[in-house]
């Protein structure tokens, strides 16, 4: 389970046209299909269990870069109403907080089972939300985005996917960053679906491209909490596309997913049109 104040299992106890849908603890919590196909299916993503095998096709976004230099198209994102609206009356949501921009992405895993049906993803996210806002009394789900084993991207934290919403995913480094959680447990030996890593890359390419950040670069962030790897107020040089464990003492996002981060960075850079 990813923990707002520390992370999982820590010692501290083109503008492309996409479909937008408005309206609408116990389980804790992408080769994307062709853009046109996913845009048409995004509303159905939480009802249809798409086969991982069937999803493993050539990544289409490399041929669909945004026209501006070093940006990437926004991938389809299932809005939070698609999962939150199914669970009864949502809790009162406090106003979101914002930064000026996003210059880094932190990748997480949710430390939950890997053998779920993708049709069950909305329930998994809803249960995570209930656990974090209930038992832990957090203001919202901590992750900005979540990606399931079929490569579907879900909006997590409220505030608008296009905006630099301050998350609650990496203690000390929630400002000017986005948290992307891979739904599952990706410790050593676990299989990380290709569609999942490609969706993470597409999402990171888009979010970092908005600030002109190269996913392969290092960036400077200032720690806001001494319980991170860096004392509060200390400048830290971290990967623009980092694992949770780069900023906090944790095994998240797991050894298997951590090993895939270099290729995720490279794909994200290519999707931005970088050499």
Write the layout of secondary structure elements.
Layout: H1 35-41, H2 52-55, H3 81-84, E1 104-109, H4 121-133, E2 145-147, E3 153-155, E4 177-182, H5 194-209, E5 218-222, E6 235-239, E7 241-243, H6 244-247, H7 255-271
Parallel strand pairs: 1-4, 1-7, 2-4
Antiparallel strand pairs: 2-3, 5-6
Low-pLDDT sequence parts: 1-67
Q: Tally of extended strands?
A: 7
Q: Tell me the Rg in angstroms.
A: 17 Å
Arrangement of strands in the largest sheet: 3-2-4-1-7
Give the overall pLDDT as a whole number: 81
What is the terminal separation in angstroms?
36 Å
Characterize the biggest β-sheet.
Answer: 5 strands, mixed
What's the helical proportion of residues?
10-25%
Q: Which band does the percent of strand residues land in?
A: 5-15%
Tally of contiguous helical segments: 7
Question: Briefly, what is this?
Answer:
The chain is an alpha/beta fold.
Describe the structure.
The protein has 275 residues and is an alpha/beta fold. The protein is 24% helix and 11% strand. The chain has 7 helices and 7 strands. It has helices at 35-41, 52-55, 81-84, 121-133, 194-209, 244-247, 255-271; strands spanning 104-109, 145-147, 153-155, 177-182, 218-222, 235-239, 241-243. A 5-stranded mixed sheet has the order 3-2-4-1-7. A hairpin with a 5-residue loop joins strand 2 and strand 3 (153-155). Helix 5 crosses helix 7. The N and C termini lie far apart (36 Å).
């Amino acid at each position: 389970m990813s923990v707002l104040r520390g992370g999982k299992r820590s010692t501290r106890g083109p503008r492309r046209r996409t479909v937008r849908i408005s309206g609408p603890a116990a389980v804790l919590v992408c080769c994307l299909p062709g853009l046109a196909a996913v845009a048409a299916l995004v509303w159905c993503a939480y009802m249809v269990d798409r086969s991982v095998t069937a999803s493993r096709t050539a990544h289409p976004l490399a041929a669909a870069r945004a026209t501006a230099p070093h940006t990437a198209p926004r991938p389809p994102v299932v809005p939070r109403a698609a999962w939150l609206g199914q669970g009864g009356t949502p809790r009162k949501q406090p106003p979101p907080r914002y930064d000026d921009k996003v210059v880094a992405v932190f990748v997480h895993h949710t430390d939950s089972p890997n053998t779920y049906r993708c049709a069950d993803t909305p329930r998994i996210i809803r249960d995570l939300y209930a656990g974090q806002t209930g038992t832990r009394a957090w203001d919202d789900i901590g992750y900005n985005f979540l990606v399931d084993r079929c490569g579907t991207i879900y909006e997590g934290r409220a505030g608008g996917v296009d905006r630099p919403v301050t998350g609650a995913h990496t203690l000390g480094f929630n400002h000017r960053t986005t948290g992307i959680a891979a739904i599952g447990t990706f410790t050593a030996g676990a299989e990380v679906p290709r569609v999942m890593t490609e969706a993470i890359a597409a999402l990171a390419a888009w979010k970092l491209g908005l600030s002109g950040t190269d996913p392969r670069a290092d960036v400077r962030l200032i720690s806001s909490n001494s319980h991170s790897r860096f004392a509060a107020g200390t400048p830290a040089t971290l990967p623009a596309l980092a694992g949770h464990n780069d900023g906090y003492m944790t095994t998240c996002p797991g050894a298997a997913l951590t090993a895939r981060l270099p290729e995720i960075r490279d794909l994200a850079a290519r999707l931005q049109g970088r050499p």
